[in-house]
Amino acid sequence: GERVGLEPGAVGARVAPSFLRFGQFELFYQRDEPALLRALAVHALGRDFAHLRLQEPEAPLSRLLVLLFREVCERQARLVAEWLRVGYCQGNMNSDNSALCGVTLDYGPFGFLERFDPMHCPWVGGGAEYSFGRQPQAAAINLSILSEAWADLLRAVATEEGLTRAEADEAVQQTREGVSSVFVDAFHATHDEHNRRKLGLVSWDDDAAELWTSLFGLMATRSGPQGIDFTVFFRSLGDLTNDLPDGGDGLAAARAAATAAAAAAAGGGTCEKRRASSRARGRAAW
Fold first, then answer.
1. Which residues contact 215 (CB under 8 A, 6 or more apart)?
2. Active-site residue 96, yes or no?
3. Which of 32, 48, 96, 185 is catalytic?
4. pLDDT, tens digit, for every residue of 154-185?
């Protein structure tokens, strides 16, 4: 007969400061339910962005909504830059998997890079648009779509507050600039700083950016099943730059180290030494 007995088991639960997602706001916008859209935005303002009221206690709701959206853009930019730093790929980065408060929401098929491939996507249905290297573009698209719902909300609130057409248009423009300006600037500032630390450079300038572009290309040409291990490469780079001569600004040593580290990582080499700056290179938890 059938055996019935106790089996060991466990319950897994996802936890986060908030599970408010872009898609929830977009749903009310697409359903033409402005009252619910407004209520959800006010809830988010009080729950996840309450500091904005403390910073500007006399500000009207329209002003606070603009500030909220622009902060959402900045948080998303810094989050995606952190993903690129540690080799994380979300895998299905649609608006329903984008948290308003700027934390990582995993879909299940997320993963970390092993062999470097900028087009890597751990989800079989993800495609190029959700690949590791295109996560900044995916985030910008999600924010752009969310901005449509936010613009509609702002126009309604502006009418309630008796703002002029010009004032309402200015609020909408500031919202759209959250994507084109705030997100872009915050991402590049954060990503460039991570890259500077990875290369062990004192400062970041056009020469450093050119070096990083060359390095990224070198890694990409050796991608795939036999390619460079993403984490081992940067660990190896940290070791090698200790022993190479400094070219004055560090770029010559970094270039030489990058080539040598690529060979070491492709061969599966490991690091025995660790530098303080390696914290910027490792597969760290956030």
1. 199, 258
2. yes
3. 96
4. 999 999 999 999 999 999 999 999 999 999 99
